[in-house]
Amino acid sequence: MDPVPALYTIRVNGHLGAMMLSAFPAMVPRWHGADTVLTGLLDRSALYGVLAEIDVLGLDLLEVRQLEPDREPPEPGDGRSPRRPPASAAPGPFKGGHL
């Protein structure tokens, strides 16, 4: 198990209302276009719990990203992994990416 929580963004299709958002008390919602982006600090079991809740509620999961603590969340669907440096940066070791 992963004892240290990590910052995640989870993007689902549609605007979730207050009742649906109450299923994700550990997550902070924001809306981007037609999607809802949930952001929160989760350990592995909490992440799996959120993903299971998304499945049970029949929501369309679009994206899951683990973010580095010192970086701003990327805009959903921007095509960049938050763990990869921009193309202009010097190449370095790969540290992970999308789940």
Describe the structure.
It is a single chain. The protein is an alpha+beta fold. It has a domain at 6-67: Alpha-Beta Plaits, CATH 3.30.70. The protein is 17% helix and 28% strand. It is built from 2 helices and 4 strands. Strands 2-3-1-4 form a 4-stranded antiparallel sheet, with helices on one face. The protein is globular. The chain starts with 5 loop residues before the first strand and ends in a 32-residue tail after the last strand. 13% of the residues are buried. Mean pLDDT is 80; it is low at 80-99.
Tell me what the CATH architecture of the domain at 6-67 is: 2-Layer Sandwich
Number of strands: 4
Percent range for helical residues?
10-25%
Describe the sheet with the most strands.
4 strands, antiparallel
User: What is the rounded distance between the termini?
Assistant: 16 Å
Keywords:
4-stranded antiparallel β-sheet, Alpha-Beta Plaits, 2 helices, globular, disordered C terminus, 99 residues, alpha+beta
Question: Would you spell out the secondary-structure blueprint of this structure?
Answer:
Blueprint: E1 6-13, H1 18-21, E2 28-32, E3 35-42, H2 44-56, E4 61-67
Antiparallel strand pairs: 1-3, 1-4, 2-3
Quick rundown:
It is built from 2 helices and 4 strands. With 99 residues, the chain is α+β, with helices and mostly antiparallel strands.
